[in-house]
Write a structure and sequence with these properties.
The complex is a heterodimer.
Chain A (H helix, E strand, L loop, with lengths): L23 E2 L2 E2 L4 H20 L9 H25 L3 H17 L12 H23 L17 H13 L1 H31 L4 H5 L1 H38 L5
Antiparallel strand pairs in A: 1-2
Chain B lengths: L1 H27 L17 H134 L5 H13 L1
The chains are: A mainly alpha, B mainly alpha.
Chain lengths: 257, 198
């Protein structure tokens, strides 16, 4: 029986869409895939959500406009709190990251959809973008002095040979932790849903008392789905917060906001 | 912040557990897997994913940076300015109302004191007027009284002189009837004078 059901990892397989025209460039197959489609849908979804919401630009906002403004002010406050007023220069980047990740996560919960953020390449690319932005901004603003980020103040000189490598490693591991956190959450959540779904099917077809028992994993699916909505929002927020904290390092070095 | 990070890490922990379960399940369903290994590690799909990621991300970034964010910022700014303007207008209106109230109170106070002064003046004028009239009336009355008194005195004096003549006439008549003798008018008059003097 189980042999006929796709495995829990099958939902993550990247496939070219059958209706998409074949597109080759420089020896690579760039034909639109399921993940590419859902990235585009998320980008267009964010655009529609924000532009239609703000279309009237009313003085007293309606429900939709309130949501659009809330998203804006939520991230604006987060950036201001973590990176200060100077950090607001990077607000468009952080806002784009937040909305993009949020919509990819949320659309990924729709049946028959695909979750691009469950792929490490996607999350790592975004984390790398943040990482490189931090280094670039730090070097432009502070020049060579930027590397004093690895030398925390108030540490005795004899400890520096130990502390500095640790700081360097922790700095370098930022893009990894940033991307793995998001990717692992999405991967685990969707896998869990699929595994529970498989339990429902296998228990339900087992017959007898076991069939009745299939209700339990079904309830599990409902609970995990609710949890996944929380995780979808939370992980997008965590991505935005960490990005602003890292940018704060680049802008203000050791000072905290 | 720390709470959120703690929450995030606990979610991550739960997720890691879930992933562990998932791996077990994946092992159990090994026979059904056509491909071996995670789809996430299928390197041949990376370039395609990055290509579409770059297109969607750059598209979204440009739209948000140049269309959406200025739009939202404009709306929020307009609202803030409007609210601040309305508050200032309300404060100005309140100031005006306060000033108007003060002016009104001052006007009422002025009117009241003017009324008081007017009443005082009127009362004084009326009193003076009535005093003058009374004095005038009293003077006229005094003149009339004096006239009347003079007339009474004159009448009385005149009457007294008549009394003497009548008395002496009467006395002469009575004497003539009683004695049968006549007396002269002069004798009678002197006798009357003598009796009146007593």
């Amino acid at each position: 029986m189980l042999n006929q059901i796709a495995g829990p990892m099958e939902q993550f397989v990247v496939r070219p869409l059958s209706w998409a025209p074949s597109f080759q460039l420089g020896g690579y197959d760039l034909t639109l895939t399921n993940t590419g489609l859902w990235m585009l849908i998320a980008a267009v979804g964010v655009t529609l959500f924000l532009t239609i919401g703000m279309a009237r630009g009313a003085l007293v906002p309606g429900r939709w406009q309130s949501m659009a403004e809330m998203a804006y002010e939520f991230i604006a406050n987060t950036v201001r709190q973590n990176a200060g007023e100077a950090g607001m220069k990077f607000f468009p980047l952080i806002f784009t990251l937040f909305m993009f990740v949020l919509f990819m996560n949320l659309f990924g919960l729709l049946p028959y959809s695909f979750t691009p953020t469950s792929h490490i390449v996607v999350t790592f690319a975004m984390a790398l973008l943040v990482f490189l932005t931090v280094i670039l901004v730090g070097l432009i603003r502070h020049g060579f002095h930027f590397f004093s980020l690895f030398v925390p103040g108030g540490v005795p000189a004899w400890l520096l040979p130990v502390i500095v490598p640790i700081e360097v490693i922790s700095f370098l591991s930022r893009p990894i932790s940033l991307s793995v956190r998001l990717f692992a959450n999405m991967l685990a959540g969707h896998t869990m849903l699929k595994v529970f779904a498989m339990f429902v099917v296998s228990l339900g077809t087992a017959g007898g008392i076991l069939s009745a028992g299939s209700v339990l994993p079904m309830l599990g699916i409902v609970a995990v789905t609710a949890l996944e909505f929380l995780v979808a929002g939370l992980q997008a927020y965590v991505f935005a917060v960490l990005t602003s904290i890292y940018l704060n390092d680049a802008i203000n070095l050791h000072e905290h906001h | 912040m720390a709470i959120l990070i703690g929450l995030a890490s606990s979610v991550l922990f739960a997720a890691a557990e879930g992933a562990a379960h998932a791996t077990e399940a994946a092992h159990a369903a090994e026979g059904a897997e056509h491909k071996t290994g995670l789809p996430q590690l299928a390197i041949e799909t990376f370039v395609g994913q990055l290509f579409w990621l770059a297109i969607s991300f750059v598209f979204l970034f440009l739209v948000l940076t140049f269309l959406v964010i200025p739009r939202i910022r404009g709306v929020l700014e307009t609202r803030r300015a409007r609210v601040a303007g309305d508050l200032a207008a309300a404060a100005a209106a309140k100031g005006e109302a306060d000033a108007a109230l003060k002016a009104y109170e001052k006007a009422v106070e002025d009117a009241r004191s003017r009324g008081r002064a007017l009443a005082e003046d009127t009362r004084k004028a009326t009193k003076a007027d009535s005093d003058a009239k009374r004095a005038e009336a009293e003077a006229a009355l005094a003149v009339k009284i004096a006239d009347a008194e003079a007339q009474v005195a004159a009448t009385k004096t005149e009457a007294l002189t008549h009394i003497r003549a009548v008395a002496s006439d009467t006395a002469a008549e009575i004497y003539a009837r009683l004695t049968g003798e006549t007396v002269t008018a002069a004798d009678a008059a002197s006798a009357v004078d003598a009796a009146m003097a007593r």
